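Progress note, sequence design subtask.
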């Protein structure tokens, strides 16, 4: 009896395997049919699209008639003027670095203000920083007293770029040459930071 039972199990298993093979073949046939449809649609679309102008003269007239819209790539082959130094590749990650890189490439560093009296702006800048940062610290450090939070804000402000003393500055009686040198030093420092 055990032989009959084993023979029955094998027939069920064979039937299941045959059914699985039929399903796999049906999937393959369906995929092949879909691919053929897609290829046929693509071929029809390519056939219906115009392949280009038959007359070369009209094509030349159309391209020369609209030079304002076309991008003129002839300028890329020309050498840059002698007074402009070629920059190395700049690697800027983050918003601040990207803005610094743009200021270097756009030449905005010459328009950048050099602080001559940071002590005049210090009090107002600190008050604005403290007003913005105190509510944030209340959430971050709930266990601290107000005076302790003020000390933390003061230490952060000393290192902050919003601090006028951390920005580019020269003496109040600096000459135009000294101001130009300070700008150049800052530009070189940013280039070194963003360079390779």
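Output:
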């Amino acid at each position: 009896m055990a032989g009959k039972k084993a023979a029955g199990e094998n027939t069920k298993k064979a039937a299941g395997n045959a059914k699985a093979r039929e399903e796999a073949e049906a999937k393959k046939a369906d995929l092949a049919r879909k691919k053929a449809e897609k290829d046929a649609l693509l071929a029809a679309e390519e056939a219906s699209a115009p392949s280009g102008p038959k007359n070369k003269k009209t094509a030349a007239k159309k391209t020369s008639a609209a030079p304002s819209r076309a991008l003129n790539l002839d300028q890329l082959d020309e050498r840059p003027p002698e007074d402009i130094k070629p920059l190395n590749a700049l690697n800027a990650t983050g918003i601040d670095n990207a803005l610094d890189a743009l200021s270097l490439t756009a030449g905005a560093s010459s328009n950048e203000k050099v602080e001559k009296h940071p002590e005049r702006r210090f009090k107002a800048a600190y008050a604005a920083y403290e007003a913005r940062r105190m509510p944030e610290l209340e959430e971050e450090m709930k266990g601290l007293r107000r005076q302790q939070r003020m000390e933390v804000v003061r230490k952060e402000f000393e290192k902050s770029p919003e601090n006028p003393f951390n920005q580019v500055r020269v003496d109040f009686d600096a000459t135009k040459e000294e101001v130009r040198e300070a700008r150049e030093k800052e530009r070189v420092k940013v280039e070194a930071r963003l360079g390779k």
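The CA atoms of residues 4 and 10 lie 10 Å apart. Work on this subtask will continue into the next period as scheduled.
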